[in-house]
Amino acid sequence: MRAWQLPAGSTGFDKLYQDTLPDLTPGPGEVLIAPRAWSINYRDFAVAAGKYFGGALTEPAVPLSDGAGEVLAVGEGVTDFAPGDRVQGSFFLDWADGPQVMGRALGDGKAPGMLAEQVVLPAQGVVKVADSLSWAEAACMPCAGVTAWNALFEGGRPIGKGSRVLVLGSGGVSLIALQLAKAAGAEVIATSSSDEKLARVLAMGAAHGVNYKAVPDWGAHVAREFGGAHKVVEVGGVGTLQQSMNALASEGEIALIGVLADGDPPHPRQLMMMGGSIRGIFVGSVAMAKKLNKFVDAHQIKPPIGATFGFDEAPAAYAHAWGPDSFGKTVIVRD
Ligand SMILES: NC(=O)c1ccc[n+]([C@@H]2O[C@H](COP(=O)([O-])OP(=O)(O)OC[C@H]3O[C@@H](n4cnc5c(N)ncnc54)[C@H](OP(=O)(O)O)[C@@H]3O)[C@@H](O)[C@H]2O)c1
């Protein structure tokens, strides 16, 4: 079978190479999957650069956490899946439900990666995909989709009808969050560095758009002009956190997700003044992935795919996702 790999000590996605690896067989409790589509997440660049949490890769590794495909075979003792089932991997293989479990994470160089024609996963880390999604759409869900779900609906301050939700930038997590929030009856405010992208985000249903380059104090702007956010989908991190605090409505929550922006650490005064809170998000559990897929089917949500590439074009897909024209999800599909 064909697989893309990163070498030990990889320093970037320019080191990707295609390889032929032996066909796989599922052992007891395992599921053999033939992925049909994959999607790229910001963290996949950190893995390729040797800058993910585990540091540099110590041996060649198949990358990517996100893929969706068909079950080819199941190992002894597996009763929840059968050949032909449409499935995705769970980003965290060992977090079934409840409090966070930091176990094996797909595509980090230690757990299996999805960017291959065959992958074996433990059955506990496999989730059936929403019937309404194509392969490419389903491949957007394991990381970006579940993260957006967790940010909006889990924890002590879930959003609902009438909530105001602020999403930062037009990346995968933010645009799926926009779609989920809209479907839940929330009003969405979106930021972007590009007016052209903002126009696309407004066409997706955001009520308001703010260019964060043109309006550097976009946090106060959101509070003043739109009444503040009950939830901020915070993908910037240190560099945007002050503005996100300034954007809060009373008792709003910042779902702290990303690390896209460097900058000065925030002063927490505004968080205190607004009775706000910050909740750390690390993707989510198998149970959250199941809830997300059910919600996606119920609301016929189609995740935003900005560009699609073939399996042999994986390096070009990475380059696109890294570049300025990236919008929503960049997807790879099997030819
Ligand atoms: N904690 C978790 O569980 C988790 C899960 C998934 C992702 N993440 C993190 O969340 C972040 C987003 O991930 P992603 O996969 O959605 O990324 P992505 O698709 O690569 O998003 C890229 C977009 O982010 C926007 N952006 C960049 N710098 C920004 C800034 N300073 N302020 C606002 N927006 C900015 C840009 O939008 P415009 O071009 O419109 O300006 C850019 O197009 C990453 O840091 C990723 O590592 C964390």
UniProtKB/TrEMBL annotation:
Coiled-coil region list: none
Domain annotation Enoyl reductase (ER): ranges: 12-332
CDD domains found in the cross-reference section: MDR7
Any one GO molecular function term: oxidoreductase activity
Highest taxon above the source species: Bacteria
Name of the protein in question: Zinc-binding dehydrogenase
